[in-house]
Design brief:
Length: about 425
């Protein structure tokens, strides 16, 4: 049949859909060519080729679906890199979300062509809570946040890789306003801007890359993380990324037991029988076992998952961002992190109390957040009062020493350069 025959077939089908014949003259006008030129194209005469814009215009006129449009591009040696319309189909999103959840216990996320986070599972939220923030973007987090610099070992090397990915995207989508805005945002950072100016290599993705990180949920122990990048057929501009990991001990590769690493409190791991009337914690475990993640219709339903002893954290919620709700569960030493999604439901993730303390360090100096920080800090300590006091007594000398070291470094910097301000407020000490 060939390209010429396929064009004739598409034109006939378009006429049947429209209820009138689509002429060769209309097709020629759509691609800004003469009718004779287009007639030759349908006869298979010469070596005529369409450019991408012409393909798009012709596809609009002939009402081609996505697969037909890709075939039109391939016939003209333009490749099949095209945005899919499957992302607008809620069935596609629902299916992908289920697939993301089924990757548990491996952290998994879905992002679009500009690295905006579209979906994630429970493990991803526990390891990297930033994905739950409104407008979460991988590049902005990795290249501009202090959190990423603390977690990546040799951050500069990873920043180079991310800049290479941005340059690869720029090569194919330089007309994307959102991509240009993203590049402008990350290049406001002086180090990133320097890398951008000196790096000339391009990288499409980080599939199979091994990189070392230290993250709070793993107790800051170094782990080797591997990213696996897949492209959903219905959303080819998106990336479906699964994270696996291991530690090396005595030259042997050993898989981490996730239940142990994440401090799982499931009744199965503790050898307990599930209660006949599930508690809030039990309901969370059931939801976690089924999908790894949970959605509820209202903010009240989300808060109820924290149990009868729940404590609302409205100030800290506002500090995280809009449409976020944090509810502390002191007995479980965790917090329910709820985010209102586009469909109005609230996506639920359960994170450790310590994860929140690390995530919002500025809250410690915000007066209105003081009570909430006290509740959060108490949840991190042992439940038994005497054990909690013992832990505090062990921590305070360490913290005092760290403050003393910071003060000494500050004094040393002042002695090296008197232009550095040196005014120490004794009330800053513990």
């Amino acid at each position: 049949m060939g390209f010429a025959g396929q064009l004739r077939s598409w034109r006939r089908a378009a006429g049947e859909r429209r209820g009138r014949r689509v002429t060769q003259g209309e097709c020629a006008k759509a691609i800004d060519r003469s009718e004779r030129w287009y007639r030759d194209l349908e006869r298979g005469a010469g070596r005529h080729r369409l450019d991408r814009k012409q393909c798009e215009n012709l596809a609009d006129l002939l009402q081609l679906d996505r697969d037909e449009f890709i075939a039109l591009l391939l016939y003209n040696s333009l490749g099949a890199n095209t945005a899919a319309d499957g992302g607008g189909d809620p069935r596609v999103r629902t299916g992908l979300r289920l697939l993301i959840d089924k990757q548990m216990p491996s952290p998994t996320y879905l992002c679009d062509a500009n690295w905006n986070i579209l979906g994630y599972n429970q493990a991803m939220a526990e390891w990297w809570p930033w994905v739950m923030q409104p407008g979460a973007n991988l590049m902005r987090w990795a290249l501009t946040s202090p959190e990423a610099r603390a977690q990546y070992h040799d951050w500069h090397r990873h920043a180079v890789e991310y800049v290479r990915m941005l340059k690869f995207a720029l090569a194919g989508r330089g007309d994307s306003g959102e991509l240009m805005e993203l590049i402008g945002d990350v290049c406001k950072d002086p180090e990133v801007r320097s890398i951008w100016g000196t790096c000339n290599e391009l990288t499409e993705n980080r599939d199979g890359h091994v990189f070392r990180m230290s993250i709070p949920v793993m107790g800051w122990e170094p782990i080797d993380v591997v990213s696996h990048v897949l492209y959903p057929a219905n959303m080819p501009d998106c990336r479906f990324v699964v994270i696996t990991w291991w530690t090396k001990e005595e030259d042997e590769t050993e898989h981490i037991d996730v239940d142990t690493a994440l401090g799982s409190r499931s009744s199965e791991s503790q050898g307990e029988e599930p209660p006949e009337q599930p508690t809030a914690a039990a309901r969370r475990r059931i939801a976690h076992d089924i999908t790894g993640r949970l959605s509820v219709p209202t903010a009240e339903d989300a808060a109820a998952l924290a149990g009868d002893d729940r404590i609302a954290l409205p100030v800290l919620s506002r500090m995280i961002g809009p449409n976020c709700q944090l509810t502390l569960s002191p007995s479980a030493q965790t917090a329910i992190w709820a985010v209102q999604e586009a469909d109005g439901d609230w996506g639920i993730s359960e994170v450790g109390a310590y994860t929140l303390v690390v995530k919002i360090p500025d809250a410690a100096v915000v007066d209105e957040a003081r009570e909430e920080m006290k509740h959060l800090t108490r949840a991190i300590l042992p439940a038994d009062a005497k054990q909690a006091v013992g832990r505090i007594q062990a921590l305070l000398p360490q913290l005092r020493k760290r403050i003393q070291i910071l003060e000494e470094v500050w004094r040393d910097l002042y002695e090296e350069d008197h232009a550095v301000p040196y005014i120490w407020d004794p009330t800053d000490e513990i």
